[in-house]
Design a protein that fits this description.
Number of domains: 2
CATH superfamily of the largest domain: Vaccinia Virus protein VP39
Order of helices and strands: HHHEHEHEEHEHHEHE
Radius of gyration: 22 Å
CATH architecture of the largest domain: 3-Layer(aba) Sandwich
Strand content: 15-25%
Number of strands: 7
CATH class of the largest domain: Alpha Beta
Distance between the termini: 39 Å
Shape: elongated
Strand order of the largest sheet: 3-2-1-4-5-7-6
Structural class: alpha/beta
Amino acid sequence: MKPDYQNWVPKPMVAGLWAGTAITFILFILLGATGLILHGTARLVCTLVLGIGTLVLLFFSVWMTSLHKAFDYSGKRKMAKTIIDGTAKYVKLPEGGVGLDVGCGSGALTIACAKRNPKANMVGCDIWSGAYKAVFSKKRCEDNAKAERTANVHFQEGNAVHLPFADASFDAVTSNYVYHNITGFDKQQLLLETLRVLKKGGTFAIHDLMGKARYGDMDAFVRKLKEEGYAEVRLIDTTDGTFMSKQEAAWLGLSGSTLLVGRK
């Protein structure tokens, strides 16, 4: 049995885009380009609308296909594995300690952290809903843990907006590409909610698209944490070759990928 971490860009999503592109192109040919059905102004309008629509859908189809290939665990690039392993190395747990992975998806980061800290335990939480409900689930997480022969993990439902855990409950907290998907909430407040459940002296490693448009001034946020007594806080640009190049990040829409790491 092999683990199946799925893909952050599901195949059905990619297939749907290509199908939409094909249908729009066929309509462009029938209603616009050939003039077999429509004529005059109606034909001109259809030609413009369907032509532009075909080009837009083609762009997104190519882009999402590139993302799917990049994040494919069994593909050549394996960016997802690079990011998971690179983030997990910052999660350090004491013997008997417990760490939390927020928005665990298919359990990849939770399990990677558990394997790096065999004398501790990891908890993965997620709401497993929305666009990813069809590919990510608690059962998939548990099946992946069994496939990896990793027993020091536990999965439960939990929302990153308001975590169902008391203050200072965990010796480490981590997350990967989660908060940018949560609309309607201040991203720095989401970070503070995750850090709320971290014990004094605990480590954290949070990876996300932390560009200013989404997160605001993260340098000021780092200074704020240090002023509050955090022992260590750093921002690591993971598009500098750490996880990907700046060119690759720009094409894939991952500019601003950053690791927030440190110790409380």
